[in-house]
Amino acid sequence: xxxxxxxxxxxxxxxxxxxxxxxxxxxxxxxxxxxxxxxxxxxxxxxxxxxxxxxxxxxxxxxxxxxxxxxxxxxxxxxxxxxxxxxxxxxxxxxxxxxxxxxxxxxxxxxxxxxxxxxxxxxxxxxxxxxxxxxxxxxxxxxxxxxxxxxxxxxxxxxxxxxxxxxxxxxxxxxxxxxxxxxxxxxxxxxxxxxxxxxxxxxxxxxxxxxxxxxxxxxxxxxxxxxxxxxxxxxxxxxxxxxxxxxxxxxxxxxxxxxxxxxxxxxxxxxxxxxxxxxxxxxxxxxxxxxxxxxxxxxxxxxxxxxxxxxxxxxxxxxxxxxxxxxxxxxxxxxxxxxxxxxxxxxxxxxxxxxxxxxxxxxxxxxxxxxxxxxxxxxxxxxxxxxxxxxxxxxxxxxxxxxxxxxxxxxxxxxxxxxxxxxxxxxxxxxxxxxxxxxxxxxxxxxxxxxxxxxxxxxxxxxxxxxxxxxxxxxxxxxxxxxxxxxxxxxxxxxxxxxxxx
Length: 502
Fold this sequence. Notes:
Layout lengths: L1 E6 L9 E7 L7 H9 L3 H7 L10 E5 L8 E8 L6 H17 L4 E5 L10 H15 L18 E6 L5 H26 L7 H15 L2 E5 L1 H7 L2 H6 L8 E8 L8 E5 L1 E5 L19 H15 L5 E11 L11 E3 L5 E3 L7 H14 L5 E5 L3 H7 L3 E6 L2 H13 L3 E4 L17 E2 L7 H10 L7 E5 L5 E2 L9 E2 L4 H13 L3
Parallel strand pairs: 1-6, 2-4, 2-5, 5-6, 9-11, 9-14, 10-11, 13-17, 14-18, 15-16
Antiparallel strand pairs: 3-4, 7-8, 8-11, 12-13, 15-18, 19-20
Helix pairs in contact: 3-4, 4-5, 5-9, 6-9, 9-14, 12-14
């Protein structure tokens, strides 16, 4: 899918479809929608009167032009209630719209800049949201299907603007939208890959490819190097699989004068069976996506480099499988982590926090600050917050506030959960410094408190994405399967951090 920015009259534009919009409750549309309505002899207003077009969010009404304008089809996209309108609604609108127009065999589409007029959104951010919505909403993953259904992909989307003065901002927004969306798409592709393809080795190869393309420094630790570094928790989880573990480090320096280097730490479990504490079979196939956090931080640092942000970032990804092989971890085993703490393994299915303990220890040892870790850590967080929210935990309120704001602007919902000291009692072990599961109650919290043991005094946020990393249906920018959740939040956070001199 290609994008172009042009000046012109949408009523006279030659293409398969044009996209206009309508707020909920509007009976007589103005602007481009009003102009299209007039060109169609009042058809849109008539459909509004009949209750067929309501302007509700997720509503995309198709009106055939019957030769009255050059475009074959007019798509009237509902923007929802005006008081609730924001840039994320634009993404939602365009995601729904491109899927609808694809079914009508539309290959060339022209759209107005939704939200840039009466919606009150600047042209650049509006254009970025349009591009993100189009690319994410039309995403498919079918590389392993040998007999593909014939599809008519959308080839080009033209963003039409009547005022030449705004073209520069719109083109800049389009460029940023492509980079943001392609990072999320890369994450989706990695997560959707079956685990026999997305091994720790292949994950490391992708990281090295991104490093080469984007000018990043890369270091990949093998098993012997992990042993030398004292990464006993990661190596413990890796005992049960024949796939060699990888410890991936990517670094970007965009601000040589900057004192801080942000640390992005991502869980890279390329398949999680639960180990000897075996998971039930119902959802085990989804556990190929237990590396969603790792995929997100790899894609995010690549996008940050493409945007040439004036910020320093290092991404750390511990990658392995968790399988019940003959050498696998046993409940009751004790592991020693990179920072010297010992862990009693009471549940081999609480392996994410084990590999992250070494990754966080590495990040702290190498002076990364602030640190944001992202992981599909606990089913408890999914139960608590459902499919659309990630839980966040922190030792630095101003840091998490900035991250939540970045997520909200990208339509990725983060909800802060508490970390009461009283719950630390649940993680205490009688034979080691700490145990790797605090039991059933407050599982997302005790998981976060476990990780807190490995970040010292470094400003830190833990993001538990166990709920939103997968979607069961298509809606807005989401399609069924991997969502790429969190990657756009990290990019946006880094962009704002750079803007403040970080």
